[in-house]
Backbone:
């Protein structure tokens, strides 16, 4: 309690006054406790009335951030999430803060600003650790595991991703398990443990295919299949590599010509190694055709819109 030297009556602290102001008698309390009139703006009655507006602002900016992520506009996504973070911070919503910090970690990873990605992920884990939002906490652990990966702390990365995997398994989040397994495969490759990586990738693919309708498009399956194919190629499993390259090609040739051209080039290289020159030549020709068709016409005056690149594992959490 605080005591005014000109008034011997003990006066409540600002936080104590606010605790009473929220109990349905603001007018009486404003008259009974003059100190409430000098409370900092954040703890004033008008602030209490603005909390719903702050939450609505945070949700709107967060939704805008999601949209920019879908478009691959990472700078604008970061701006929207930072505005969302500011609103949720003033509203003191720990769960929403944790979610937004997780999103920011993912965005900064896409921008290859890995120090910021790690810092935001660590803050997200801190905010969500003592909440009832286990799914959000698992997502934060996942991004923190990738944060350790960016900093080449592979043992910590695996340990943190394993925690996220266990929690998602406990929650019955099979798609989340698949996404975490895909990232664990990436860490195992960095450690040189290719068999463990291949096992993680295959488990990720199986889990994803059971719930593929929950993700828009086929980008995740294409990405995982290409990673399996490259890993199989490096291990000498040519048939397995070709099978996954062909499956990835079937998924993307109608929606992403540039990516399909890259996969066709990979297939051509595989067949050249097998001395199947006719098939390799056919793949090279198809790749060139797709590359040419993907280029804008020289006669067009409108500047071509850049197509956002396919997200890596950081884009899924």
Residues:
């Amino acid at each position: 309690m605080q005591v005014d030297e000109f008034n011997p009556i003990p006066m409540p602290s600002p936080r104590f006054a606010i605790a009473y102001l929220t109990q349905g008698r603001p007018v009486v309390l404003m008259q009974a406790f003059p100190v409430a009139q000098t409370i900092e703006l954040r703890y004033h009655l008008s602030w209490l009335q603005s909390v719903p507006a702050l939450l609505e602002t945070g949700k709107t900016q967060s939704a805008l951030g999601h949209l920019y992520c879908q478009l691959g506009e990472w700078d604008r996504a970061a701006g929207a999430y930072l505005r969302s973070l500011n609103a949720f911070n003033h509203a003191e919503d720990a769960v929403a803060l944790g979610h937004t910090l997780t999103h920011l970690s993912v965005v900064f990873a896409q921008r290859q600003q890995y120090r910021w990605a790690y810092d935001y992920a660590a803050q997200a884990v801190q905010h969500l650790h003592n909440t009832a939002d286990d799914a959000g906490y698992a997502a934060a652990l996942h991004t923190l595991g990738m944060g350790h990966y960016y900093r080449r702390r592979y043992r910590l990365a695996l340990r943190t991703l394993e925690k996220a995997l266990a929690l998602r398994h406990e929650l019955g989040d099979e798609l989340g398990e698949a996404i975490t397994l895909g990232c664990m495969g990436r860490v195992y490759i960095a450690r040189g443990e290719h068999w463990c990586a291949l096992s993680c990738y295959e488990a990720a693919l199986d889990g994803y295919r059971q719930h593929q309708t929950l993700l828009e498009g086929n980008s995740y399956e294409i990405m995982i299949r290409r990673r399996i194919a490259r890993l199989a190629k490096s291990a000498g499993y040519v048939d397995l590599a070709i099978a996954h390259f062909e499956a990835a090609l079937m998924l993307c040739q109608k929606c992403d010509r540039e990516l399909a051209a890259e996969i066709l080039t990979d297939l051509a290289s595989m067949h050249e190694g097998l001395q199947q020159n006719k098939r390799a030549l056919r793949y090279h020709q198809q790749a060139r055709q797709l590359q040419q068709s993907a280029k804008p016409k020289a006669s067009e005056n409108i500047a071509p819109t850049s197509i956002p690149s396919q997200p890596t594992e950081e884009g899924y959490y």
In short: The domain at 93-211 is CATH 1.25.40.10 (Serine Threonine Protein Phosphatase 5, Tetratricopeptide repeat). The first strand starts at residue 2 and ends at 4. Confidence is low (pLDDT under 50) at residues 1-48, 298-311. The beta strands are 2-4, 7-11.
